[in-house]
Amino acid sequence: MKARESVEALKRREKSKFVTTKNERAVERAAQRYSQQYQQQQASINNNISNINFSVVAKFVSVALVAFARFAY
């Protein structure tokens, strides 16, 4: 009787171990997915910032050129 109980306990433990590893894999996949999304968002934000910086510099240069042209002639 005791041997059968220990076999049942082993089966339950193995089953719960499988469920745990399955859950861990699901969590890992979700973490990778969110990490990938975060990296893509950061890249997009950095790209937008550099575009804005370029736009600001271009505006400043064009204003400076117009001012120089007005005062020079």
Verbal overview:
- With 73 residues, the protein is mostly helical.
- The protein has one helix spanning 2-72.
- The termini are far apart.
- The model has no long low-confidence stretch (mean pLDDT 86).
Low confidence ranges: none
Helix/strand structural class: mainly alpha
> Which term fits the overall shape?
rod-shaped
Query: Treating each run of at least 4 consecutive H or I residues as one helix, how many helices?
Result: 1
The share of residues in extended strands comes to under 5%
Count of distinct strands: 0
| CA(first)-CA(last) distance | 107 Å
Give me some keywords for this one.
mainly alpha; 73 residues
